[in-house]
Fold this sequence. Notes:
Elements: E1 2-6, H1 10-22, E2 26-30, H2 33-42, E3 47-50, H3 59-67, E4 74-79, H4 84-93, E5 97-100, H5 105-119, E6 127-129, E7 132-135, E8 140-143, E9 146-148, H6 152-163, H7 171-178, H8 189-201, E10 207-210, E11 214-217
Parallel strand pairs: 1-2, 1-3, 3-4, 4-5
Antiparallel strand pairs: 6-7, 7-8, 8-9, 10-11
Amino acid sequence: MRVLVVEDEEVLADAIARGLRREAMAVDVTHDGATALDRIAVNRYDVVVLDRDLPVVHGDEVCRQLAADPLAPRILMLTASAGVDDRVEGLTLGADDYLAKPFAFAELVARLRALARRAGSALPPVIERGAISLDPARRVASRDGRFLRLTNKELAVLEVLLCADGAVVSAEQLLERAWDEHADPFTNAVRVMMVKLRRKLGNPPVIETVAGAGYRIL
Length: 218
């Protein structure tokens, strides 16, 4: 799951990003509306956490432009404007959800996961393929009922592979979905991660390397 946090209060933006990364999400951060639109044009996000009162391009205009694009990510407005009229206006502009500041972080995470499930084809709360089971919200994975002790990044990569439902996922796609914009496209991070993930998943192997194409869960 990849999220863009658009918040001009840098301390709050960084705090949100750190918390979401602990939830095994890939997170990018920007502090104005113009840069947010540029990022969304070149990166694929599941959800945008959008403040309203942004510099350069107002958050309402960002929301309006994204709502006009059927391929745009889901939008969660996160703002201090908490009145009923404010919420109605935000949702009318095209936001998919609206959360007022101050907020409970657990609620933000739950709302983001709910929006991400709606961003593509509907996924069940627990994703399963063969003997592998993953509950993204609880960050719990198992194989044949055996608990898998995975890091946040390993959970994120496993989620991308499971969601592909047997289709091949390229290294570039994994970098895009499980890392953030700072990931080096020439890095060997994906290959190293696959070695670690295979070791923890155990035998018989369930991650297949498709030469010249990528990886898939058998």
